[in-house]
Amino acid sequence: MNLIQTRDMSIHYGEEVVLEHVNFQISSGEIVTLVGPNGSGKSTLIRALLGVVPLSNGSIVKQEGLRVGYVPQKLMIDKTMPLSVARFLALPGQAATGETDVVMERIGIVGLQGKQMADLSGGQFQRVLLARALLARPEILILDEPTQGLDQPGIAAFYRIIEEVRKDIGCAILLVSHDLHVVMSASDRVICLNGHVCCEGTPQVVSAAPEYRALFGVGTGGTLALYRHEHDHDHSHDHTHDEAQ
């Protein structure tokens, strides 16, 4: 079942064409990673899916009552405003204390309740944002470049948490990544965007696609590196939009 589907979606800012004729869908339990160069329309696509950006053409169809958890690229917190982790997670007060405790333990941020949001490290801050998104009990979790600004160990740790969350609660995941050579091993599909969908498929297929290589080159053999496990070697749907051409 498709949770979200776009149909011939286009977005223009005045005379500027940001996205054109995008057909995209994500199904229940699916993990999709979205990659593309700066200015390719990745964040615009996410904002459109969230209903923040109006469409110029086309449509977006969502499953009725769809629960969405969202982790933004960044969130500015005024250092002069007292806002503890506990208070931030309580906004807007939907989750019970017990549920919050369970989510904090799952994400690995137990003990941070009393800390000020402005005093958190980059990795801690992103985990708190993830915890807040999970309190929405999402059927789909959307993450817009959530590891921006983290070091490599922090990036690896965050991706491992995402994989564990998906296994625990079974939600679909849409991950926008600026880490061209780091894609979750469990990804069902990678979509390469550059104002339109250039190609899509498993990480192996996309990394070999001419469209991907034209955008990102072959500096590391043209491959997307994976955090792999022994059970992740069998991928069943290798395809691109352009294989038949």
Shape: globular
Strand content: 25-35%
CATH level 4 superfamily of the largest domain = P-loop containing nucleotide triphosphate hydrolases
* CATH fold assignment of the largest domain: Rossmann fold
CA distance, first residue to last residue: 28 Å
Mean pLDDT: 84
Please give the CATH class of the largest domain.
Alpha Beta
Secondary structure: number of strands: 11
Number of helices: 7
Order of helices and strands: EEEHEEHHHEHEEEEHHE
Number of structural units classed as domains:
2
Overall CATH architecture of the largest domain:
3-Layer(aba) Sandwich
How are strands sequenced across the largest beta sheet?
Answer: 5-6-7-3-9-10
Characterize the largest beta sheet: strand count, sense, and whether it forms a barrel. 6 strands, mixed
What percentage of residues falls in helices of 4 or more residues? 25-40%
- Uncertain spans: 226-245
| Helix-strand makeup class | alpha/beta
What value does the Rg take, in angstroms? Answer: 18 Å
Question: How is this structure best described in words?
Answer:
By secondary structure, the chain is an alpha/beta fold. The protein folds into 2 domains: 2-67 and 140-232, P-loop containing nucleotide triphosphate hydrolases (Rossmann fold); 75-137, no CATH class. It has 7 helices and 11 strands. The chain has helices at residues 42-49, 85-90, 97-107, 122-134, 152-169, 203-208, 210-216; strands spanning 2-13, 16-27, 31-35, 57-62, 68-71, 140-144, 172-176, 183-184, 189-193, 197-201, 226-227. The strands form 3 sheets. The protein has a 6-stranded mixed sheet, with helices on both faces. A 3-stranded antiparallel sheet has the order 2-1-4, covered by helices on one side. Strand 1 and strand 2 form a beta hairpin. Helix 3 packs across helix 4 (122-134). The chain starts with a strand and ends in an 18-residue tail after the last strand. The relative contact order is 0.17. Residues 226-245 have low confidence and may be disordered.
